[in-house]
Amino acid sequence: MPKTKIRAVAATGNLSTGFREESLVRAVEQGASFVGCDAGTTDSGPYYLGSGKPRGPREGVKRNLRLVLREALKAGIPVIVGSAGHAGGRPHLEWTLEIVRELAREHDWHFKLAAIDSEIDKDVLADAFNRGEITPLSPAPPLDDRAIRHAERFVAMMGIEPIQQALTAGAQVVIGGRCSDLAIYAALPVLREIPKSVAFHAGKILECGAASAAQRLYPDCMVAELDQDGFTVEPPNPAIRCTPQSVAAHALYENADPYRLVESGGDLDTTDAKYEAVGESAVRVTGSRFTPSNKYTVRIEGATLVGYRSIVIAGIRDPLVLRQLDTFLSTLRPVIERKVSDSMKLSADAYSLNFRVYGRNGTLGDLEQVSEAGHEVGLIIDVVAATQSVAADIIPIASHTGLHHPIPEHEGLISNLAYPFSPGGIDAGPVYSFCINHVWELTEPCKPFATKMEVL
């Protein structure tokens, strides 16, 4: 009896970044079972989840969806998109669905569409929290009923089961809200009896498209052929190749443990995985294990509004200031706070004031190991306040104070800062923070995820 084989195509690492059209065409023509694509991440921070806004150009996303839908519908295979609109909330999902419906109208395409909503209403989450079903991960912010109701939006990260439910119901195109990256690629293979050890590991390698290649020259497609014993990964673009090292390295990408990947429903263990070159550009992977968990949990993500930001960007080149930069900034802060108090009647705890020094420790902050500054640094003065107008009012006070803040070597009025822009203050808009890092224990994996089917 022949072994079941599934050919999974990852269009790219993120739906908004694009791929080579010829790569996708080649991948599907070679006999694809489905096309998947991740569309989101928390890497960009909490802004998109909190604001409800998508990331990426609409026309770019539309172009990429058009090519994916065209090739998949032509081949009669499913399309699976996860974390729609980047953050996977209800507005992000609807934004993506509007593009799909628009494309269907424009090209006279007809198919069964499934939309999986992963946004969790606050009342539902508060009830689950009060029942003891919500457990913190580490680190996790304090969580209570008030914090839940104060937040802007929550999403649950779905596993493979809601996608499988949609496929079983006949969906040809599945657009999901917040979703585990690898679930996009593991759902259909597991449904067709590929072992989870194989499907989950292949999904991990496929999640970022061509990122598992030795050198990803540009965002592009990746293909994996899965069977009962393992999978073989190979880029459809002949200009890109995979090596055992590049594929093994991607198993470590964005993973706290180099050998253990925790997913809803169980853990993937790659300790004994083998990566073997096949020809010039492919890699065969075998030997992973999957251990089911005793409890089925999904990760919850949430964002809350903390204020509004205004910034000033400036440069400092004076060697006398640079050699005592820490003292300069530490003595600058109380002067700014005093001026804000005098002119705006605001105490220091009514806003946040931060200095980011680029050219020394702007990237790592307190974790920076190298303390020496170069011949110049870039300084960002960052103010977050309750309203945009308050933040915008504080910024010129902070900026002008820093411009003329003295050091012992200076006599008379000296200007310390060089501004590349006029006006110097830039309003950066609302600021959000992640307000939850917890998991929700479920008795039914599909329960929080409402799926709507429509025929286009």
Describe this structure in words.
By secondary structure, the chain is α+β, with helices and mostly antiparallel strands. The chain has two domains: 6-300 and 436-455, no CATH class; 318-417, no CATH class. It is built from 13 helices and 19 strands. It has helices at 21-29, 47-51, 58-75, 90-107, 122-130, 145-150, 160-168, 183-191, 196-206, 244-252, 319-322, 325-344, 388-403; strands at residues 6-10, 34-38, 79-82, 112-117, 134-136, 153-156, 173-176, 222-226, 230-234, 260-263, 266-269, 274-278, 282-286, 289-292, 296-316, 351-358, 377-385, 425-442, 450-455. Strands 12-13-9-8-1-2-3-7-4-19 form a ten-stranded mixed β-sheet, sandwiched between helices. Strands 5, 6, 15, 16, 17 and 18 form a six-stranded antiparallel β-sheet that branches. It has a three-stranded antiparallel β-sheet with strand order 10-11-14, covered by helices on one side. Helix 3 (58-75) packs across helix 4 (90-107), helix 7 packs across helix 8 and helix 12 (325-344) packs across helix 13 (388-403). The radius of gyration is 25 Å and the shape is globular.
